[in-house]
Amino acid sequence: MNCSAPRREGRRRHDSQRPITAKKMEEEIIQPIPKDVLKRELTPERQLRMTNKSNNEIYVITAQDAPNVMREIGRLREIAFRSAGGGTGKAADIDEFDTMEGGCKQLIVWNPEAEEIIGGYRYLFGNDWKLDDKGQPLLATSHMFHFSDQFMRDYAPYTVELGRSFVSLEYQNVRTNTKSIFALDNLWDGLGALTVINPDCRYFFGKMTMYPSYIRRGRDMILYFLKKHFDDKDNLIVPIKPLTIETPEDELSRLFDQASFRNDYRILNREIRRLGYNIPPLVNAYMSLSPTMKLFGTAINYGFGDVEETGILIAVDEILEEKRVRHIDSYVKEHPEALKITSGANKVIYKSRHEH
Q1: SS3 category, 37
Q2: Cα atoms found within 13 Å of the Cα of residue 13, Cβ hemisphere only
Q3: Does the keyword Membrane apply (predicted)?
Q4: Rounded to whole angstroms, how far apart are CA atoms 335 and 81?
Q5: Taking the CB of the first residue and of the last residue of the chain, which one, N or C, has fewer CB atoms within 10 A?
Q6: Strand partners, 311
Q7: Is residue 1 part of a domain?
Q8: What mean pLDDT do residues 200-221 have?
Q9: How far apart are CA 133 and CA 271, in angstroms?
Q10: Coil/strand/helix, residue 349
Q11: b/e burial code for range 214-248 (CB count within 10 A of at least 16 → b)
């Protein structure tokens, strides 16, 4: 779920957990793939649905069945992540989890008018995860997090891992592109459809990403706040090398002294603004998605621009009703036949506009 999103620049500081290394030379990003080549691979059977807003199209592809679309995704991902302070430094952000047999599928939002990709995610359902000789899943997050036996037994078979979420740079500015307003919304329409198509999908597992350029004190406030209200007490997933905050914890506990999430959030928003920053949009989005989100701690992703990745798990059935209606229910109304292949694991909530 690690989505690149616009953020305000801050001074980069090296902390004690971050080895001071020279920044690797970045390769020149590949040229755009011609639109007619992309359109040939975006065939009707690969279209998942239309979006709720903006009349865009959602497709699911793999590197094997649509290699040129995969290259364009890799190009757009690298541009988006580099601009935010991350990225691989390679000519395109494509790795073995994209290309290996049985690897991640790519969910993309396509603008049929401009004939270009607005954004995307990659995903892999838990029943498709491969395991190493220690029973750990072979995922893009495996070098940062350890997965408990309890998680692998009780959660993994019903989980979809999400990653490399991005919005193309051209769609990150609302002022210059009206479709930008709904870019994230469109991506979540696709995720909503996945939970109906795959009846075993009960949990989203992914990462919230913060960049090294974000002011340290602000980052510490956000991580402390999230831990206070969403901390996973069962140690289902733990960082192998957890990032520790620099701001004294007793100082933060005095600051966030409210009993309710809502009141502490007001304090967080006020203090971040005082620093001249905003809470990153995706952090806000995930917090508002589910009141029972589980937070697994934070690790530094040294192979991806030293970004800070916080593991999260969201239960589909506990997503707030308004979000469910918008992203999941809308798919069922568009594709009633999809209900025939569900086991009832994910109850669909119907709500008309006139209900209160």
Answers
A1: helix
A2: 10
A3: no
A4: 34
A5: C
A6: 207
A7: no
A8: 92
A9: 46
A10: coil
A11: bbbbbbbbbbbbbbebbebeeebbbbeeebebebe
Give the amino acid at 134: K
List Cα–Cα distances, 217 to 240, 263, 301, 345, in angstroms.
Answer: 23, 20, 20, 42
Quick one: DSSP state of residue 283?
H
Q: In the prediction, which pLDDT does 182 show?
A: 66
Judge whether 4 lies within some domain. Answer: no
* Range(s) of the domain holding residue 75: 35-338
**Domain membership flag for residue 18:** no
Amino acid at 280: P
pLDDT in tens, 185-194: 777 777 777 8
Q: CB–CB of 296/190 below 8 Å?
A: no
Alpha-carbon gap, residue 80 to 184, rounded angstroms: 14
Reported confidence tier of residue 85, pLDDT bands at 50, 70, 90: confident
- The per-residue pLDDT of the chain, averaged, comes to 83
Q: Residue 173: pLDDT above 50? A: yes
The CA-CA-CA angle for residues 86, 92, 98, to 5°, reads 95
Q: 3-state secondary structure string, 120-145?
A: EEEEEEHHHCCECCCCCECCCCCCCE
Beta bridge partners of 49: 58
Name the domain count of the chain.
1
Assign residue 282 the CATH number of its domain.
Answer: 3.40.630.30
pTM: 0.82
Q: Is 20 within a domain?
A: no
Q: Mean of the pLDDT values across residues 184-211? A: 83
131 forms beta bridges with: 137
